[in-house]
Amino acid sequence: MAAPDSLRQIPSVASLLARDEVRSLLARHPRAVVLGAMRKLLDAYRSEALRTKGGGRPREEWASRLIAALPGAVAAGEEIPLRRVINATGVVVHTNLGRAPLPEEAIRAVSDTASGYSNLEFDLFEGTRSRRLVHVEEMLLSLTGAESVHVVNNNAAAVFLCLAALAREREVIVSRGELVEIGGSFRIPEIMAASGAILVEVGTTNRTRLADYERALGPATALLLKVHPSNFRITGFTEEVPAADLAVLGARHGIPVMEDLGSGAVFDFGAAGIPGTPTIRQALSEGPGVVTVSGDKLLGGPQAGIIAGRKELVEPLKKHPLSRALRIDKMCIAALAATLRLYADERRAAARIPVLGMILEGEGMARARARKLIARVRRQEARIVRRDGVSPDPAQPLRGETPSGSGGLALRVEPSFSFPGGGAMPEVGIPTACVAVSHERVRVEELEARLRKGDPPVVGRIAKGRLLLDMRTVRDGELAGLAAALIAAAQGTGEP
Ligand SMILES: *Cc1c(COP(=O)(O)O)cnc(C)c1O
């Protein structure tokens, strides 16, 4: 069938592939991406030509239009690479930024075991098949005080597995104040429905009493579930039932209690003056039969879901078919084992596990880092000025506690609050120091965007019209990159 007249002038893919501009794109990008982008543009041109009856454009005009648009279309069609980012938000466990940075020991363990074969499921002494959990089980038992532990892909998987294995087609009683959504689409009512357990809501959004649970108990009850509200607080006229009271009620009726702690810790933050997050051991001592936590929140390890509790509740989980579907992979096992090993000594844990270090670090350290960053930017600016043959301003203060800035960039140390994040202790703000960034000629929104799109990308936050870079979540090793990114952002390129 002949093409309608209006389409005759649209160039063919074959003719475009012969052009130098397209060839040079093909040398730098996957063929499928370039072809996909080209077809998309051609489709759009075809509909435009049909609409406008060809628009009277000659073939060469369509072709040069496509050549001009192609690099952008190719860039948009390409996968966005996963890359290292500087977290200057002050949120230590930031889900969108990948949660816990791993301890060096864990990184080495991952690299070591992943680059070759390992004894993942092989007993080197007996020469027989083994289980992958043996590499973390003993440490978890001793760190949590639990009778039995299990580990799966993440905490959502842990909750799902517990509900499916312990309460399928039976009832699970939950307070209406704890029917939470944790973000990334983890919602208690939905995970419950997917597991096959039947949700029984009790109490109200702000107040639930023990009697509410008691009234809902019946022959179909399989579990009493308590969920850590994680990312919000209900304040004012409120009442909730402590896990300990639920445990007593459950024990009286022979019904197990499960607690989704979310961000349960191994390190005792309460003892270090940061209240709000119990350790897994403390949570278990309140009496629930089983608790679940994430591996990459306050524990500071890789993504994982840890289930700890009484033998008769946890052991059946290991044999459940879902356990195989939700199992933890070898790199996570390697990282988790290395992280847990650090907890054998609390002081070493605090020094070696980045999440702990960042939360426990004093304000003074963040302040010192802020000063270091400002000094670095000023030194680098002076170097640029010398290189470009303009004499550096002798009045330019290099230490920069005061607003100043060659090139219009002003940097100032400013006190603020950081947050542990990860759904942990949402009300706990940790005093910190930020570098407040502004520019004589560039709006803060533009500065924020340039830093975010820069290299390395830097994520800060805008508060009350200022761009704040929280120095608690910036590591010393990142200061050089951050200084370069700031100068590039001030120069307007976004890229150093
Ligand atoms: C974070 C959290 C989850 C989800 O854990 P993942 O490890 O992200 O799957 C579930 N429940 C609570 C209470 C949480 O805080």
Using brief descriptors, characterize the structure shown:
single chain; 496 residues; alpha/beta; seven-stranded mixed β-sheet; globular; binds pyridoxal-5'-phosphate
In short:
With 496 residues, this protein is an alpha/beta fold. The protein has 19 helices and 16 strands. Helix 7 packs across helix 8.
The share of residues in extended strands comes to: 15-25%
Across the major sheet, the strand order is 5-11-10-9-8-6-7
Q: Kindly state the number of beta strands.
A: 16
Main β-sheet description: 7 strands, mixed
Structural class: alpha/beta
Q: What is the gyration radius calculated from CA atoms?
A: 29 Å
Measure the end-to-end span.
54 Å
Task: Tell me which ligands are bound.
Answer: pyridoxal-5'-phosphate
Shape: globular
Mean pLDDT value:
91
List the total number of helices.
19
| Helix percent band | 40-55%
Low-confidence parts: 391-405
